[in-house]
Amino acid sequence: MNNNFELDEDFEYFLEKFGEPFTCEPCSPTIIDQFKDKLPDRLLEYWQAYGFCGFKQGLFWIVNPEDYEDSLDEWLEHTDIPDNDIYHVIARNAFGDLFLWGEETGYKYEITTRRGWIIEQDGNSRQENDFSIKCFFGFSDVDEHDITSESGKPLFNACIKKHGALGSDEMFGFAPSLIVGGKSELANLSKVNIFVHLSILAQFGQIEVLDHKALMRKAFS
């Protein structure tokens, strides 16, 4: 960890919930320079202190946006989202959810890849960037990154027990995909390469952009 890093209460609370990081890849000065003035200064300080790393045996990951550029291009290719801002993947979870930060609009989209959904968030102005990134981590909850089976049973711990902890390039993916009618069951989940799996899911071509109202209609339909 960077010895000059001062832990803020929001990230401290995040660590209380998610535990200490593992599989930490140091962030080079080149990466910091590349994303300076594009992503929140506070996020870059987290990178310098902790690197790119996983939490809770791979439930949640702080990622290098460079690694996800091709995946993000595939997912946004047939939407008008890239017309509005330049977006970067700053985090992801064990089931392939991607969290996007816009250079001008902040935390604006979350991609629930297993469903083919791009979910619009409120976003924020550049002036609110550091406050917003602190909130992003401080309000993150362990349970929200888990998913459930058709009968409502949480799946992450069962996946870990069956398949082991995730590596930085791995996720738990469904086969058959939920996008084409697969069932959310432990038997249908396996450990897969995240980049290959995200590409396959994007190629199904059933991507929907949803605001909160549309998402609620989906949830209760």
From TrEMBL:
Domain GAD-related: 11-113
UniProt domain T6SS immunity protein Tdi1 C-terminal: residue ranges: 132-204
Tree of life domain: Bacteria
Any Pfam family matching the protein: GAD-like
Protein name (database record): GAD-like domain-containing protein
Organism listed in the record: Photobacterium sanguinicancri
